[in-house]
């Protein structure tokens, strides 16, 4: 089986997905994040790696959350 990566314009995605389903092709994966969102995540990861105190430890963050 071969794998193919395509860039589909947002306004054509629903049509393309229906076409693919009607032809019986298998959808392997679909990105959940936009390229801009991925870049923001990568920036935060970089900041966290460079400065371990940039983000709170999960145990400390949990104490600050108000749970009702």
* Poorly predicted parts: none
What's the overall geometry? elongated
Q: Helical element count?
A: 3
Helix-strand makeup class: mainly alpha
What is the H/E string? HHH
Give the averaged pLDDT, no decimals: 85
Number of strands: 0
What's the helical proportion of residues?
40-55%
User: End-to-end span in angstroms?
Assistant: 50 Å
Strand content: under 5%
As a whole number of angstroms, the C-alpha radius of gyration is 20 Å
| Main sheet characteristics | none
Secondary structure layout plus pairing:
Layout: H1 13-23, H2 35-50, H3 58-64
Structure explained in plain terms:
With 68 residues, the chain is mainly alpha-helical. It is 50% helix and 0% strand. It has helices at 13-23, 35-50, 58-64. The longest helix has 16 residues, at 35-50. The chain is elongated, with a radius of gyration of 20 Å. It starts with 12 loop residues before the first helix and ends with a helix. The model has no long low-confidence stretch (mean pLDDT 85).
